[in-house]
Amino acid sequence: MREAPQELVATLVTRARAALERFERFGQDGIDAAVAAAGWAILEPGRNRRLAELAVQATGLGNVEDKFRKNQRKTLGLLRDLKGVRSVGVIAEDAARGLTEIARPVGVVAAVTPATNPAATPANNIINAVKGGNAIVLAPSPRGASTCALLVDFVHAELAKVGAPADLVQLLPEETGRDGLAELMRRADLVVATGSRSNVRAAYASGTPALGVGVGNVAAIVLPTADMAATARRIAISKTFDNATSCSSENSLVVVGDAWAPLLAALTAEQGVLATTAEKLRLQATLFAGGGLNPKLVARSAPEIATQAGLERRPYAAARLILVEEDGVGAAHPFSGEKLSPVLTLYRVPDFDAALALVRRLYAHQGAGHSVGVHGATEAQALRLGLELPVCRVIVDQVHCFAVGGSFDNGLPFSLSMGCGTWGGNSFSDNLNYRHFLNITRIARPIPEIVPSEEELLGDYWRRYGR
After folding, report:
1. Under 8 Å between Cβ of 218 and 248
2. Is 225 in the same domain as 205?
3. What letter does residue 175 receive in the DSSP assignment?
4. Catalytic one among 247, 392, 401, 420?
5. Domains identified in the chain, total number
6. pLDDT at 433
7. Of 239, 293, 412, 448, which residue is 20 to 30 A from 173 by alpha carbon distance?
8. Does 328 fall in a domain?
9. Are residues 280 and 166 in the same domain?
C-alpha cells in the first residue's frame, strides 16, 4: 500500500532529526569538513557538467555553459565567504558589554527551490544549512527535481568521505505533491522559499518561521556620464547570462537625456536589436500570450523568441538582445514588468529626477525591494537611490545579475536568494546567508551600572522645545 504524503514527510523529518543528533558532536572542524564536502559535490568539474546538462535538458531553461559557470562561481564564492567563519559554539565575546554569543542550529530546514536554478540554489541552501549545523530537506520544482536528485546523490557521496550522516541532506519525493510540501513546511523548524510567488506565500502561511524572496523587475538608470561601451557590455552580459533566468537581470533601462543615442549605438554593437513599432506589437502578442508571460518563451534565446514572434529582419538571427522602447508602466504595458528572457525595455527621461520617479512607478507595479542599477552616477546620486527608492541594493557600474548575488569584486554575500524587505513582502532585506540558518544564544553578565541623567537624554529637547 502506498504511503501517504504526510507519513513520508514524517519519516523524512524523523531521519533528519536523528542525523542532527549525530551532527551536534562534530564541532566546528567537522562541520567545516562537511561544508567543503557539500561544496566539492557540485564544484568538481565532471559533476558540475552533468548537473548543468541535466538542468537544461529537464527544464528547457537557460543554457549549459552558463549553468556550469553559475554552479561554479556561486559555490566557490560561498565557500570563500564561509572559510574561517565560526558557526558553532561561542562565536563572539564583548567584554565591555558583558555579552557572549553562542551559535545554535535552527534545526530542520525545508528549502523550496526553483526550476531556473535546480542545482545552484539547492547547493547554496545545503552549504549554508550545514554550516549552521542543520539538516535540510529540499523541495525542488517538478521540472528541477531530477537535477536536484542528482545533486543530492553527489552530496551524499562526499558527506560519506567525512563521516557525516547522509540524512543531513534529503529530498522531498516528487510524488508527495502539494500536500507533501505543505506537510514539510509545517514540520520543519525553518522554511526557505525561492521561486514562485505561490510557494513564497505558502511558506509564510505555513505557521513555521519562513524566509521568502520577492519578485524581480530590475531597472537600471544610465546617465550621460557613463562609459557607454562598458555599460552596454555589462548590461548585455547580465541580460543574456543563462538566457535571463535570473531575477537579478535587468528588465528595463531608464536612459537619461543625451545618453540615449550613444547607449543605443553601444547596445547595437553588443548585438542588441531595437524592435520597430510593428515588431513590438507582434512580440507583445507572443511573449505575453494569454495575458501573462508565455512560459514557452521564458529563458529562451533572442533568436528563438524572434522566430516565435515572427520577427524576420536579418539582425534577429544573430541577436543577443531584443530591445523595446516603452513609455508606459503597468498592466496595460506588459513590457514594464519582468520578462525572464533577453528582452529589454528602454525608457527615455530628461533628467535624474525623472529617472527616480519612473523607477518608483516601475517598482510600484512590480519588483519593489529587490535592487536598482546605475551607470555613470556620482556618489551623491547613488546615495539618493538608496535613500529614496524602495530597494535593498543599489548596484553601481557592475554586471547586475552577478553583483546582486555577491561578487568577487563587491562586498555582498554570495547568494541565490535575495530578500526584498517589507517592500517586497519579505521578512529580511539582505542576501540569504549562513547567519539566517542560526539561532544565537546570548549570555549577559552584570557590568558596572551606568545610568544616564534626564539632562543627558532630554536636555537638547528641553532647550529647543521647552519642558
Report:
1. yes
2. no
3. G
4. 247
5. 2
6. 97
7. 293
8. yes
9. no
| DSSP track, 422-454 | GGGT-S--SB--GGGGEEEEEEE---------H
| Cα gap 41→61, rounded to integer Å | 22
In CATH, what number is assigned to the domain containing residue 260?
A: 3.40.309.10
Q: Of 138, 106, 111, which Cα lies nearest the Cα of 193?
A: 111
pLDDT at position 2, please? 64
> Residue 407 corresponds to which cell in the numbers above?
561578487
What phi and psi values does residue 310 have, to the nearest 5 degrees? 75, 30
Give a yes or no: residue 356 inside a domain: yes
Residue at grid coordinates 509545517: 186
353 within a domain of the structure (yes/no):
yes
- 323 beta partners: 274, 344
The neighbour count for residue 191, using CB atoms within 10 Å, is 26
Q: Indicate if 247 belongs to the active site.
A: yes
Same-domain status, 386 and 285 = yes
Residues 266, 264: Cα–Cα separation, whole Å: 5
HEC per residue, 377-392: CCHHHHHHHHHHCCEC
Residue 167 lies in a domain: yes
- Tell whether 227 and 372 lie within a shared domain: yes
CA angle 185, 127, 147 (to 5 degrees): 70
256 and 235, same structural domain?
A: yes
Q: 116 with 260, same domain? A: no
Any residues with CB less than 8 A from the CB of 365 and at least 6 apart, and which? 217, 329, 330, 331, 336, 337
Domain region containing 49: 5-213+432-443
DSSP state for residue 369 in the 8-state scheme: B
Same domain? 75 vs 174: yes
> Residue 169 in contact with residue 136, Cβ under 8 Å?
yes
User: Based on the domain organization, do 41 and 78 belong to the same domain?
Assistant: yes
Candidates 89, 115, 85; CA nearest to 443 is 89
DSSP state of 375: E
Under 8 Å CB-to-CB from 356, ≥6 apart: which residues? 384, 385, 388, 389
Question: Which 8-state DSSP code applies to residue 410?
Answer: S
Average pLDDT for runs of 10 along the chain of length 467 = 83 98 96 98 98 97 96 98 97 97 98 95 98 98 96 98 98 93 97 89 94 94 98 98 95 98 98 98 95 93 97 97 98 96 98 98 97 98 98 98 96 96 95 98 96 97 96
